[in-house]
């Protein structure tokens, strides 16, 4: 730990020198600089814009910070995030939401400063992302019933709304009547993370329990209309509309809905959603239904859903309406979550349903009739009633959530892994034979209720990423993919700031392990360039373990594989066409100013050197190195202008580099930005 701390201090000092732009200072002056009073607000960006590179939407005045248990988070924030205040805290996740003073530091500036800086006690720092969506296609065709059934006549009842049950083709496909002989969802609560729900709808009156609005931090009255859009009422009806021969009926008609409003009407941000997940788990949710998603990886959401899974709460999420085959859709791509594709009335995958190895199963999601808020009946309802036909993986997801509720009632001791496997194994194979990226294991059915949960044993694997030359440094931000060699099912993850990713609740069996990174955009990755990323493929066998060991896992007790990262090439070719009379010395130094190698570059000449060999010859085990130049003028040499250019070959990739020596700049750095001072990372 002492060695790591020394490296960090040295790096921070050098970064201060770089940001200040004092390229004509002596290197020894840099090491002695005091960084305690650095004014971050005035620093110029020397890295590519975080906002441009990430292509994500987020609140520019907020940061999500995950801290280690026992850390003094207030002290850490005060020392490392100038002007920031703690706005909210989720102690169950060891995470806080910071409010930034944008006159001093916004998100983009914070990431430029934090890049490569290891802060003791901090697990991760990320923006509060706001780019998740609800995947739904609303029908405006009032004749859809006639198109599907050949008749425009609805079953009328003496009082109340018409009976739409015969138009719920999904119930017949899934085998609802057969399922209800065993379970109806009684005693099971489904946390519905959505737009809120209309508790005044006749099909949902009495079907809701108290919910939570994490953005407003308020309790939701189950007897009012708290739906900001209509989406949450539609998904709620699919799950738990009453079976009273009026309106529609949910697949789990005796389950209860716990509304957690996370769209109002737009997405409220990952941090507030994580707070909503924790609240739902702590207040009795047995299943979490998530008809939303998109964007990229989020540490705070991963922590929140892991909190749910380790508390035996089943998590279901829609796969998205992007049509394309992808791997980045979250939350459905998190390990342990049941990702749901959308199928139609003839058991085909819909054109809009996203494909990907994260898909577990499919469920009906095309032209699904369900409840909408009563206030929207006149403008959006079928024949002016508070029901509408919508399509999307948003509609498919709640059918799977409802099936999970039925299984939970029938098998109350089944764990989340067993319930997921029962849903997958009981599915009807559609699309391609066996597991495929469009339908997963198939379209869900009531046959899942006939399976024995005790036959399903979970496996787990921890993947560690280390540096061959320096095992003391953590490789965070490494992307890891596990592919089951028998089924092709994939699980995705990213190493945390302790250099590992835990895949808990996966099928035992043989896996191909694909490892790549560290992802240079990740704030705590040690590298600044994509060319410094490395990739590996290996194989491993995952064995079944005691499920209780996954409830509060101790990483050292989980089977693991360790991948050593090793830089394979670091060579420099440099030259100049200019004439000069002094001595131009090119050096490779580490952050302690120790010289690995140096040489004199002569007038009108070029030279090449193997920098990696020089590092290995010295026996150094440090990550970061700098290419520097220093020019000593000849007697009587006043006016100098030397342009030096060449390339660094890093792991097979050429990187053009250059610098310019002038009377005002006789010492400085060599890199692709002409002397910005970016370090070179060697594993």
From TrEMBL:
A molecular function (GO) term: serine-type endopeptidase activity
Limits of the Fervidolysin/DR-A0283-like Ig-like domain: 463-539
Membrane-spanning ranges: none
Domain of life, per lineage: Bacteria
Keyword tRNA-binding included in the entry's annotation: no
Record domain Fervidolysin-like N-terminal prodomain: where: 51-128
Keywords: Hydrolase, Protease, Serine protease
Every Peptidase S8/S53 domain range: 185-442
Database matches in InterPro entries: Fervidolysin-like_N_prodom (IPR054399), Ig-like_fold (IPR013783), Ig_Fls_DR_A0283-like (IPR056489), Peptidase_S8/S53_dom (IPR000209), Peptidase_S8/S53_dom_sf (IPR036852), Peptidase_S8_Ser-AS (IPR023828), Peptidase_S8_subtilisin-like (IPR050131), Peptidase_S8_subtilisin-rel (IPR015500)
Catalytic residues (positions): 194 (charge relay system), 231 (charge relay system), 394 (charge relay system)
A Pfam family reported for this protein in Swiss-Prot or TrEMBL: Ig_DR_A0283-like
GO biological process: proteolysis
Annotated family: Belongs to the peptidase S8 family.
Name assigned to this protein: Uncharacterized protein
């Amino acid at each position: 730990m002492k060695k790591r701390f020394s490296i960090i201090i040295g790096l921070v000092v050098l970064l201060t020198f770089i940001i200040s732009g004092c390229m004509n200072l002596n290197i020894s002056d840099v090491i002695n600089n005091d960084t305690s009073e650095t004014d971050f607000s005035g620093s110029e960006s020397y890295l590519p814009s975080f906002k441009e590179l990430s292509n994500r939407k987020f609140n520019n005045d907020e940061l999500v910070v995950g801290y280690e248990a026992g850390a003094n988070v207030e002290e850490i924030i005060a020392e490392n995030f100038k002007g920031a205040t703690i706005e909210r805290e989720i102690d169950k996740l060891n995470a806080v939401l910071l409010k930034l003073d944008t006159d001093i530091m916004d998100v983009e500036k914070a990431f430029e400063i934090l890049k490569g800086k290891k802060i003791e006690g901090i697990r991760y720092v990320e923006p509060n992302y706001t780019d998740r969506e609800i995947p739904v296609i609303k029908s405006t065709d009032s004749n859809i019933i006639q198109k599907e059934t050949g008749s425009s006549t609805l079953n009328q009842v003496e009082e109340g709304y018409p009976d739409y049950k015969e138009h719920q083709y999904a119930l017949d496909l899934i085998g609802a009547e057969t399922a209800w002989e065993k379970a109806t969802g009684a005693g099971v609560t489904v946390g519905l993370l959505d737009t809120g729900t209309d508790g005044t709808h006749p099909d949902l009156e009495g079907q809701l329990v108290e919910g939570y609005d994490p953005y407003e931090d308020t309790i939701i009255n189950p007897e009012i209309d708290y739906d900001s859009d209509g989406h949450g009422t539609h998904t709620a009806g699919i799950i738990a509309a009453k079976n009273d021969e009026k309106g529609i009926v949910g697949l789990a008609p005796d389950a209860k809905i716990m509304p957690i409003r996370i769209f109002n009407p737009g997405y409220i941000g990952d941090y507030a959603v994580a707070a909503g997940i924790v609240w739902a788990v702590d207040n009795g949710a047995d299943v979490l239904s998530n008809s939303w998603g998109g964007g990229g990886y989020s540490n705070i959401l991963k922590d929140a859903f892991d909190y749910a899974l380790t508390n035996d709460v089943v998590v279901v999420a829609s796969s998205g309406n992007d049509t394309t085959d992808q791997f980045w859709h979250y939350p459905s791509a998190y390990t342990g979550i049941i990702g749901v594709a959308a199928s139609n009335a003839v058991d085909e995958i819909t054109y809009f349903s996203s494909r990907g190895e994260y898909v577990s199963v499919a469920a009906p999601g095309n032209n699904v009739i369900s409840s909408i808020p009563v206030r929207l009946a006149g403008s959006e309802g079928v024949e002016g009633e508070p029901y509408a036909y919508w399509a999307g993986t948003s509609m498919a997801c709640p059918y799977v959530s409802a099936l999970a509720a039925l299984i939970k009632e029938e098998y109350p001791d089944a764990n989340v892994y067993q319930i997921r496997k029962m849903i997958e194994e009981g599915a009807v194979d559609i699309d391609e034979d066996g597991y495929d990226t469009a339908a997963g294991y198939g379209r869900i059915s009531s046959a899942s209720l006939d399976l024995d949960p005790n036959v399903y044993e979970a496996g787990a694997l921890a993947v560690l990423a280390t540096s061959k030359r320096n095992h003391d440094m953590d490789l965070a931000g490494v992307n890891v993919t596990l592919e089951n060699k028998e089924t092709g099912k994939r699980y995705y993850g990213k190493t945390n700031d302790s250099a590992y990713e835990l895949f808990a609740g996966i099928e035992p069996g043989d896996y191909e392990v694909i490892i790549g990174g560290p992802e240079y955009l990740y704030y705590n990755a040690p590298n600044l360039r994509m060319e410094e990323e490395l990739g590996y493929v290996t194989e491993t066998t995952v064995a079944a373990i005691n499920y209780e060991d996954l409830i509060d896992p101790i990483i050292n007790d989980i089977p693991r594989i360790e991948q050593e990262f090793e830089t394979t090439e670091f060579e420099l070719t440099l030259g100049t066409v200019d004439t000069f009379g002094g001595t131009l010395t090119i050096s490779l130094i580490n952050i302690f100013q120790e010289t690995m190698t140096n040489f004199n570059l002569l007038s009108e000449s070029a030279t090449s050197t193997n920098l990696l060999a020089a590092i290995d010859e010295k026996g150094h085990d440090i990550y970061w190195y700098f290419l520097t130049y220093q020019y000593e003028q000849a007697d009587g040499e006043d006016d100098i202008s030397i342009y030096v250019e060449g390339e660094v070959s890093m792991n097979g990739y050429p990187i053009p580099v250059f610098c310019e020596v002038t009377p005002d700049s006789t010492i400085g750095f060599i890199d692709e930005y002409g002397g910005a001072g970016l370090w070179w990372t060697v594993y």
